[in-house]
Design brief:
Length: about 950
C-alpha cells in the first residue's frame, strides 16, 4: 500500500504539486504581511470610530464599554454561580474564589454542568430561551445540593454584542452565531434573566454582573497573569476586548483610569471596510448565513464558518474539474457538511491527509491522493487566513495600547479561549508567529483560559463586589467632608456670629476682628516711591513700588523674593527680624537706594492687635511660624531694632498691615468697589470695611486682649477715638475701618466640632498650634495636604487603599504637600500622572488607588473652598445688612497660592458664596502684585495724611 502511494506521488511530482494549483485558485485568500498591516491599520481606524461619540452610531466596530475597570488584583474572594451562554456550550457553574490564593492550587474551585440548548429555543421566543436557562440553573442547584434558600451572587457570561450602561445591565444589540431568538433585541438581557429566574422561582439569585466572553477570558487569565489586559475568543464566533484609557471611551462618563472595551470585531467589514479582501466564497457564506451583511470579519475567521468556506472552495474546484476529476456529490453541495472540526482534522500533523481522505469519503467522494493534498491545503489556506486576520486585529489593538501608554516596546498577555484556538492543531502557533512579525516590538504571551470564562465572570463579579464595597466604604469615609447646603448655611451663620462676637470684644472670641486703622481707600492721587516688605506664607518679598502721578492705577513694581527658611520661622524673634533686615538691606543695595530712607509698608500676615497704622502687637503665630519672643510684642519695633542692629540701611516703616488688608488695597486701586481682602494660601483670612460704629473703640474698654503698653514713638498723638489725627471733615467722613477678621480662628472654641473629621483632629493634634486656627486647618494650603494624608492613612489602614500597606512614607508628616492636590485634581492630568506623583512619593499604587486618592483630594479641597465660600457669604451679607441694602455689589481682592493655583478652588468658593448670599453680587479680583502694592499704597496714604 505504502509502495503504491510513493510511486504515484513521484509521478504527480512530475505532475504539478497539487498545492500550487490551490495557491493559485485561492490566491485572494493568501494574505501577505503588508496586506495584514493594511488590515490592521484599517481596524485601528474602525476602533477610533467606535470609541468616539460622534462616529460611534455609524461605526461597524461598536467598541462597547463593559464597565469592567480593572483586572483582578488577587484580593478577590467569594462564592458565585455563573452562567456561560453564547459559546458552543451553555454551562452552569459554581465558582469558589479563595482570598489571596491566586496562582496556587485550589485558588479557584469550580463545578460545572453543560446543558444542551435545543435549536428551536435558539430560534424561538427569547423568553423561552431564558426560561430554559433559568430551569437549567435550578437543576444545577438541585444536582449540586446548593442551598435554594441562600442568596447566591450570579455572574452571567453572555457572548453577544450588548450595550451596557452598568455592569449588571446590557441591551442586546443583535444576535450572532447560531442564536436568533425573537423579542430580545434592544432588551436588557439581565432583566430578562432576572424575570426568568423569578418565574422559575424557588431560588434566590442576585445577578450582579453580565460580561462578554472575551472579557471573562481576559479576567480568567488576568487572575494568573497581571499583564493580561486583552481577551480573545476564536470559537464559534470571534471577538476581542482590551483595557482602554477611559478618557478615550466617549460613551462613558469620566476620564479616570481604564475600562475594558468589547470591540465586537466580528462586525469589522460590515460597512465595506474589507470589501477588497472579501472573496466570492466569503460572499457565498454570508449570503447563506442567518445574518447576511453582518459579522463579515467573523465569517472569515471563526469556527462557525471555516468549515463552510472550505466546503464552498472544494465544491467550486470540483465543479471546475480541478478536483475529483470534476465529480461533485450532493453531500459536497450540502451546507455545513464540512465543519471546522473537519478542517482541524485535515490539518493534523500526522493524520491530516488520512483524515482528509476519510472526510471526503464521507462526502461520497473518491479523492485521489493529490485531491487529498489539495483539499488539505484548502483547509490550511482558509484557517491560515483566519489566524492571519486575527493577528492583524490583535496587532491593531496592541498598537493602540502601546500608543495610549506612550510605550516603545512592551509586554502584554492575551487571555484566549474558543474551540478553534483550543482544538485546531496549528492555529495558536501560526497566530503567534504572524503577530510577532507584524508587531516585533511587543512581547506577547498567550494564556489559554483552561476552565472557560466563568472563573473570569465570577472574578468580574468579585471585583465589582470589591469595588462596590470599597466605593461604599470610601464614600462613608469621605461623606463627612461632603458638606450639605444645610451644614454650609450653618457655617455661614456661625461665621456671622463669630464676626459679631469679635466686634463686641466681650471676652475672647474665635474670630478676633482686629482693627487695622485703615479707614479710607486710595483716591488714585498717590504718587512716589515706596518700599513694601511682604512676609508671604511661603517666602519673603521686598518690593519697590513707584506710583506715577496723574496716571490713575499706574504703578511700577520691582521686587526680589527671598526664601524664609524653617529654622528662621521657628528660631528666635531676633533671628527672624535680622533675616528680614538682611533681605531688606540686600534689596536696597541691589536697587542702589540704600540711603534713600524710603517710607515702607510692612505686610505681616498674622493676627496682630494694632493701636495705630504702624504698631502691631503679635497676638499669636500661625501657619509654620513660631519664632520666640514675638507673641505679645510689637513686631514693628522688633523690625526697627533689627534694622538698627544691622546698621547698614535706614528704614522708615510707616505702616504695617495684614496681608488681607494689603490685598484689599491692591484691589481697591483697580476697582473702587473692592472692600474685602481674601487670602486663601498657606493660611486663610479675610478683611473687610466695617462700619466704624460697629467697632468697639480700642483702648476704651480695657478688654482682656488689650494689656501691654509697648507704645511706639507715634503713640503720643493718638486720639482716644483711635483715629490718626484726621481733620474733622475727614473724621466726619470716616464711616468705616478695615477689620482684619482672622476668621482662621473660627472653631477654636468648638463651634465647628460637628463638621470636624477624625483626619482634622489628627492634623490639629500634630500641628505646632493644636486647638488654634481650626477653620484655617480645614481650609488652607498649610494643612490640606496633611488632611489628605491622614485620610489616605485611614483608608489604607481599612485595607481600601495601597492594598492596606501602611508605608513609612504614608506615615511621614508633610509628605503630601498641598501642591499635589492641585496637580492631582487638574483636569488635564490622566491617572497615569497621578500614579507617577504617588510613585514619586514612594507610594506604589494601582489604577484604583489613584482614582481614590484623587477623590480624597477633591473631597478635601472642595470642602475647603465651600467653607471659605460660606465664610465669604457671611461677610458680604454683613456688609449688605450694615448698609441696609437689599442688594450689594462688592469686589473682593484675593490672593494666595491655593486660590490662584488650585484648578477648582476659586470657582467652588465663588459658587458657594453666590448660593449662600444670593442678595450679593460678589466679584473676585485676583491681585497681581500681591499685598505688597497694597501695603505701599497704605504707606503713601499714611505719609500724605501726616504731611497735611
Ligand atoms: C468557552 C467560554 C465561553 C466562550 C467560548 C467561546 O467559556 O464563554 O463563549 O469559550 O468558544 P466556543 O465555545 O464558541 O468555541
Ligand atoms: C501673596 C501676598 C502675601 C500673602 C500671600 C498668601 O502678597 O502677602 O501672604 O499671597 O499666599 P501664600 O503665599 O500663603 O499662598
Ligand atoms: C459575538 C461576541 C462574542 C464572540 C465570541 C460573536 O459572535 O458577537 O460577543 O464575544 O462571538 O463568542
Ligand atoms: C493669619 C492671617 C493671615 C492668613 C493668610 C493666617 O494664618 O492668621 O493673619 O492673613 O494666614 O496669610
Amino acid at each position: 500500500m505504502l509502495a503504491v502511494h510513493l510511486v504515484s506521488s513521484f509521478f504527480s511530482k512530475l505532475q504539478e504539486d497539487p498545492t500550487k494549483k490551490v495557491d493559485r485558485f485561492l490566491y485572494a485568500m493568501c494574505l501577505h504581511d503588508d496586506q495584514l498591516s493594511d488590515i490592521s491599520t484599517r481596524f485601528q481606524a474602525e476602533m477610533k470610530k467606535g470609541l468616539s461619540a460622534e462616529s460611534n452610531a455609524a461605526a461597524a466596530v461598536k467598541m462597547l464599554p463593559t464597565h469592567v475597570r480593572c483586572t483582578p488584583d488577587g484580593s478577590e474572594t467569594g462564592q458565585f454561580l455563573a452562567l456561560d451562554l453564547g459559546g458552543s456550550k451553555f454551562k452552569v457553574l459554581q465558582v469558589k474564589v479563595r482570598e489571596g490564593m491566586r496562582m496556587r492550587r485550589g485558588g479557584v474551585e469550580m463545578e460545572e454542568k453543560t446543558y444542551p440548548i435545543p435549536r428551536e429555543l435558539l430560534e424561538g421566543r427569547g423568553a423561552e430561551l431564558f426560561g430554559h436557562v433559568s430551569e437549567s440553573l435550578k437543576d444545577f442547584l438541585h444536582e449540586k445540593n446548593i442551598s435554594l434558600e441562600k442568596k447566591h451572587p450570579l455572574a452571567f457570561t453572555f457572548s453577544f454584542p450588548c450595550e451596557q450602561s452598568t455592569l449588571d445591565r446590557g441591551l442586546l444589540l443583535s444576535w450572532s452565531k447560531t442564536y436568533r431568538a425573537r423579542g430580545l433585541q434592544g432588551k436588557d438581557v439581565v432583566q430578562v434573566l432576572r424575570e426568568a429566574i423569578d418565574k422559575t422561582g424557588g431560588m434566590h439569585i442576585e445577578v450582579l454582573a453580565m460580561v462578554n466572553d472575551t472579557v471573562a477570558a481576559m479576567m480568567t487569565c488576568g487572575f494568573e497573569d497581571r499583564y493580561c489586559e486583552v481577551g480573545l475568543i476564536i470559537g464559534t464566533g470571534t471577538n476581542a476586548c482590551y483595557m482602554e484609557e477611559l478618557c478615550h471611551v466617549d460613551l462613558v462618563e469620566g476620564d479616570e483610569g481604564r475600562m475594558c472595551v468589547n470591540t465586537e470585531w466580528g462586525a469589522f467589514g460590515d460597512d465595506g471596510a474589507l470589501n477588497d479582501y472579501i472573496t466570492e466564497f466569503d460572499r457565498d457564506v454570508d449570503a447563506a448565513s442567518n445574518n447576511p451583511g453582518k459579522q463579515i470579519f467573523e465569517k472569515m475567521v471563526s469556527g462557525m464558518y471555516l468549515g463552510e468556506l472550505v466546503r464552498l472552495v472544494v465544491l467550486k474546484m470540483a465543479t471546475l474539474g480541478i478536483l475529483f476529476e470534476g465529480h461533485v456529490s450532493d453531500a459536497l453541495r450540502t451546507k455545513g457538511k464540512i465543519t471546522t472540526a473537519h478542517v482541524a482534522a485535515m490539518e493534523e500533523y500526522k493524520n491530516g491527509l488520512k483524515n482528509t481522505r476519510g472526510i471526503l469519503m464521507d462526502l461520497d467522494l473518491t479523492p485521489s491522493p493529490d485531491d487529498c493534498v489539495a483539499v488539505q491545503h484548502v483547509s490550511t489556506i482558509v484557517s491560515f487566513r483566519s489566524s492571519n486576520l486575527v493577528a492583524a486585529g490583535l496587532a491593531a489593538i496592541l498598537t493602540r495600547i502601546k500608543n495610549n501608554r506612550n510605550l516603545r516596546t512592551f509586554r502584554m498577555t492575551v487571555g484566549v479561549d474558543g474551540t478553534v484556538y483550543k482544538t485546531h492543531p496549528q492555529y495558536p502557533k501560526r497566530l503567534h508567529k504572524v503577530l510577532q512579525r507584524l508587531l516585533p516590538e511587543c512581547q506577547v504571551r498567550f494564556v489559554l483560559s483552561h476552565s472557560g470564562s466563568s472563573k473570569g465572570a465570577a472574578l468580574v463579579t468579585a471585583v465589582a463586589q470589591r469595588l462596590a464595597s470599597q466605593k461604599r466604604k470610601v464614600d462613608e469615609t469621605l461623606s463627612p467632608f461632603r458638606l450639605s447646603s444645610e451644614q454650609l448655611q450653618l457655617v455661614k451663620a456661625r461665621m456671622r456670629a463669630g464676626l459679631e462676637a469679635g466686634l463686641k470684644r466681650e471676652g475672647p472670641s474665635e474670630v478676633k476682628m482686629l482693627p487695622s486703622f485703615l479707614y479710607s481707600p486710595p483716591d488714585g492721587t498717590e504718587h512716589g516711591q515706596y518700599l513694601a516688605l511682604d512676609l508671604g506664607g511661603t517666602n519673603f518679598k521686598v518690593m519697590l513700588v513707584n506710583f506715577r502721578k496723574g496716571l490713575h492705577q499706574s504703578s511700577q513694581v520691582l521686587h526680589k523674593i527671598y526664601t524664609m527658611p524653617l529654622e528662621i520661622m521657628q528660631g528666635t524673634g531676633d533671628e527672624l527680624f535680622d533675616h528680614i533686615a538682611e533681605c531688606v538691606s540686600d534689596f536696597l543695595d541691589y536697587m542702589g537706594i540704600k540711603n534713600d530712607r524710603l517710607p515702607a509698608g510692612f505686610t505681616f500676615p498674622f493676627p496682630c492687635e494694632q493701636t495705630a497704622i504702624d504698631t502691631c502687637k503679635l497676638v499669636s503665630w500661625t501657619k509654620g511660624f513660631k519664632a520666640t519672643d514675638c507673641e505679645g510684642n510689637d513686631v514693628v519695633s522688633m523690625l526697627r531694632e533689627a534694622i538698627k542692629r544691622r546698621n547698614e540701611v535706614e528704614l522708615d516703616i510707616a505702616a504695617v498691615v495684614n496681608d488681607t488688608v494689603g490685598t484689599m488695597m491692591s484691589g481697591t486701586y483697580e476697582d473702587p468697589q473692592c472692600e474685602i481682602g481674601l487670602i486663601a494660601g498657606t493660611g486663610t483670612n479675610v478683611c473687610y470695611m466695617e462700619e466704624l460704629k460697629n467697632i468697639k473703640k480700642t483702648g476704651q474698654k480695657k478688654g482682656p486682649m488689650e494689656r501691654e503698653e509697648g507704645k511706639s514713638g507715634r503713640e503720643e498723638n493718638k486720639q482716644e477715638d483711635g483715629t490718626n489725627g484726621e481733620t474733622e471733615q475727614e473724621k466726619a467722613d470716616i464711616q468705616k475701618m478695615c477689620i482684619n477678621t482672622e476668621w482662621g480662628g473660627l472653631g477654636d472654641y468648638g463651634s465647628l466640632d460637628d463638621i470636624i473629621t477624625p483626619s482634622d483632629v489628627e492634623v490639629d493634634h500634630n500641628s505646632i498650634n493644636p486647638g488654634k486656627q481650626r477653620f484655617e486647618k480645614l481650609t488652607s494650603g498649610m494643612y490640606l495636604g496633611e488632611v489628605v494624608r491622614q485620610t489616605l492613612l485611614d483608608l489604607t489602614r481599612a485595607g481600601l487603599l495601597f492594598r492596606g500597606h501602611v508605608t513609612e512614607t504614608l506615615k511621614t508628616p508633610g509628605i503630601f504637600q498641598t501642591k499635589y492636590l492641585s496637580q492631582i485634581e487638574s483636569d488635564r492630568l490622566a491617572l497615569l500622572q497621578v500614579r507617577s506623583i504617588l510613585q514619586g512619593l514612594g507610594l506604589d499604587s494601582t489604577c484604583d488607588d489613584s482614582i481614590i486618592v484623587k477623590e480624597v483630594c477633591e473631597a478635601v479641597s472642595r470642602r475647603a473652598a465651600q467653607l471659605c465660600g460660606a465664610g465669604m457669604a457671611a461677610v458680604v451679607d454683613k456688609i449688605r445688612e450694615n448698609r441696609g441694602l437689599d442688594h450689594l455689589n462688592v469686589t473682593v481682592g484675593v490672593d494666595g497660592t491655593l486660590y490662584k493655583h488650585h484648578p477648582h478652588f476659586s470657582e467652588v468658593l465663588q459658587e458657594t458664596a453666590r448660593v449662600l448670599a444670593p442678595q450679593c453680587n460678589v466679584t473676585f479680583l485676583p491681585s497681581e502684585d500681591g499685598s505688597g502694592k497694597g501695603a505701599a499704597l497704605i504707606t503713601a496714604l499714611t505719609r500724605r495724611r501726616e504731611e497735611m
